[in-house]
Amino acid sequence: MTPSETPVLVDLKSILPEELRTLVRQLGQEEYRAGQLLSWVHGKGVEEVDQMSNLSRAFREQLKGVAWVSRLREVERQVSPGGQAIKFLFELPTGERVESVLIIDGKRRTACLSSQVGCPLDCQFCATGRMGFLRNLSAAQITDQLLQLARTLMAERGERVTNVVMMGMGEPLLNYEEVVRALRLMRLEHGPAIGGRKVTVSTAGYVPGIRRLAREDLNLGLAISLNATTDELRDQLMPINRKFQIAELLAAAAEFFALRGRRVTFEYVLLAGVNDSDEDALRLADLTRGVPCKINLIPYNELGVHTPFRRPPPERVAHFRQTLEASSPMAVTLRESRGRDIDAACGQLYQAQERRPRSAQAAALAPAG
Ligand code: SAH
Question: What does CATH list as the number for 3-68?
Fold first, then answer.
């Protein structure tokens, strides 16, 4: 066989129902088999075709000739001392690693997923940005993070994941096709069934992606990492701003609201002495006045040697919040990072793991092999 004739196997973890029905039909099987396959892969977490016991042996053999099920290898797990955050480190077949975090908060069980290995956007305060861009994750690899987190949560606490945030490593809107495919897979009733209001995509401000997402038949939440109130500062902190300036970003946010009817969330990471002045708070209120939104303040999680940025003292954070609330009609929230004690804060993933030896606790919790 020449290379061009080598059959390319379909990854059952990334295939959408309509595509799977076509595949099943092409194999001469009835369409309802597609639903059975989706339940095996997304519901029961079965990755060996031979274990799919309600399929005939002949069909399984046929299927193995055209399809397989990929899997990320879990290489480390860390639980925060309070047990509120569990960080998972996964390895790709190509050897790179990505992280996902399970956040336990009241009744919510949120899976924070990665979309890329590294990130091309180079935000100056972000750990992932410091790594540079290595590769996009496939839809299957994004989905698998959720499937594995969900399985762990069910096995250890008998609970289900309730929410998904695309706030791990990478810029989701720069891996658009795979991310949207994963978002479609995770809402299937055969699997975790998480969709609509329970899913938030967070972007550094890739405007064409926001406009495109606003036109998908997905009822998701959008978070925009604003982080600065002048183009001058935002150009420095988040180089993507040099292409898509604040005014254009706000227009895209307004368009998202107009088309989807959902308020966007502006995230604002507070950096001491950089963007935490009273003037910043007032400008933030002014900028966001025209866009139905929520504002989420995030005190910076310090990355140590990786960036010069610091978290403002608690009094400054409180004062910024008061100043903003006094001049903005929008709902303002303050996120106290629940993963801080294990470096699992969003935007803080990956590099911390690189420079720290495996803790005894993590070793005890990580699966063997
Ligand atoms: N690329 C996407 C999603 C990943 S970052 C985005 O930019 O939105 C998720 C969030 O974490 C963003 O709001 C980002 O501004 C924030 N963040 C990055 N590094 C951080 C840090 N060290 N401390 C606190 N928040 C951080």
Answer: 1.10.150.530
The ligand 1 atom at the shortest distance from the C-alpha of residue 204 is 7
Q: Is 312 in the pocket of ligand 1 (CB under 6 A)?
A: no
Residue 99 CA, chain-centre distance (Å), reads 10
Q: Is the dihedral of CA 172, 177, 182, 184 positive or negative?
A: positive
**Hey, which residues does 269 pair with through a beta bridge?**
298
Active site (annotated) includes residue 267: no
| pLDDT, tens digit, 9 for 90 and up, residues 186-233 | 999 999 999 888 999 999 999 999 999 999 999 899 999 999 999 999
Assign a CATH topology to domain 73-365.
Answer: TIM Barrel (3.20.20)
| Structure token digits, residue 95 | 């050897």
**Best probe residue, ligand 1, of 130, 225, 244 (max atoms within 8 Å of C-beta):** 225
The count of C-alpha atoms lying within 13 angstroms of the C-alpha of 72, restricted to the half-sphere facing its C-beta, is: 27
- Could you state, in order of their start, the residue ranges of all structural domains in the chain? 3-68, 73-365
**Prediction pTM value:** 0.92
Q: Decide the pairing of beta strands 97-105 and 108-112.
A: antiparallel
Scored b (16 or more CB within 10 A) or e, 135-157 reads: ebbbbbbbbbbbbbbbebbeeee
State the sign of the Cα–Cα–Cα–Cα dihedral 155, 161, 167, 173. Answer: positive
CA dist 367 and 369 (Å) reads 7
Return the structure tokens found at 46. 């079965």
Task: Identify the segments of the chain with pLDDT beneath 70.
Answer: 1-7, 305, 337-369
